[in-house]
Write a structure and sequence with these properties.
This protein is α+β, with helices and mostly antiparallel strands. The protein has a domain of 121 residues. Helices cover 45% and strands 20% of the residues. The strands form two sheets. A three-stranded antiparallel sheet has the order 3-4-5. A two-stranded antiparallel ribbon has the order 1-2. Helix 3 runs antiparallel to helix 4. The longest helix has 45 residues.
C-alpha cells in the first residue's frame, strides 16, 4: 500500500467489525487504473488481452481458402469461355467449307488451334460436327467437349477433372453451291 494513503479501518471504537475501505478504493481508483476504469476507457473487458490474435489465427485460414476457391472458380469459368470460343470458331470454319467432310476436318483443326492458342490443355477433346442440314440456307452445328484436370485450374491442387462442353451453330450461305462429297 502506498504510504500516503489512509489506512483502512476494520473496526470502530465499539469493537464492531466494519469494513471501511471505500475511501481507500476511491483514492486508489484515481491513482492507478482499475478494472472498471480500464473497461470504461478502452471499451474492452480486462481479460480480453490477446483475443485479437486468436481471432486472426482462426479467420486467416478461412480467408485463404475462400481466396483459393475464388481463383479456382475464376479459372474454371475462364476455361469454360475458352471452350465456347473454340466451338464458335469450329462452327464458323465448318460453315466456310464446301462439303460435310471438309467441314468436319476444318472444325477439328479450328477447335484444336483455338484451345491450344489460348493455353488450355485438354486431357481428352472431342469435336462432333452435325452436318445433317449441310445445304444452302442450312446450318452446321459443332459440339466441343474438353476434359480438363482441375489441378491445372487452381493453385490449390483440387483433385478430379471437369468436363467442359459447348455447342455452337453457324449458318450456311443461301446462294452458294455445296459439294456432296467429302
Amino acid at each position: 500500500m502506498p504510504p500516503d494513503s489512509p489506512e483502512p479501518r476494520f473496526s470502530d471504537q465499539s469493537g464492531k467489525v466494519s469494513v471501511i475501505v471505500a475511501e481507500h478504493q476511491a483514492d486508489a481508483c484515481h491513482r492507478r487504473p482499475g478494472r472498471i476504469r480500464r473497461f470504461l476507457t478502452t471499451g474492452r473487458p480486462v481479460g480480453d488481452r490477446g483475443s485479437s490474435i486468436i481471432e486472426l489465427v482462426i479467420v486467416t485460414p478461412i480467408v485463404i481458402v475462400l481466396l483459393f476457391t475464388m481463383v479456382a472458380l475464376g479459372r474454371y469459368s475462364q476455361n469454360n469461355i475458352l471452350v465456347e470460343q473454340a466451338s464458335a470458331a469450329a462452327a464458323r470454319a465448318a460453315s466456310l467449307t464446301s462439303s460435310p467432310g471438309q467441314g468436319q476436318r476444318a472444325a477439328q483443326g479450328a477447335a484444336d488451334a483455338a484451345l491450344s492458342g489460348a493455353g488450355l490443355a485438354c486431357a481428352a477433346m472431342t469435336v462432333s460436327v452435325d452436318t445433317s442440314v449441310f445445304r444452302p440456307g442450312g446450318q452446321v452445328s459443332v459440339t466441343v467437349t474438353c476434359t480438363s484436370d482441375l489441378s491445372s485450374l487452381a493453385l490449390t491442387g483440387v483433385p478430379g477433372s471437369a468436363t467442359l462442353h459447348s455447342t455452337s451453330a453457324a449458318p450456311l450461305e443461301a446462294f452458294r453451291a455445296f459439294g456432296a462429297g467429302s
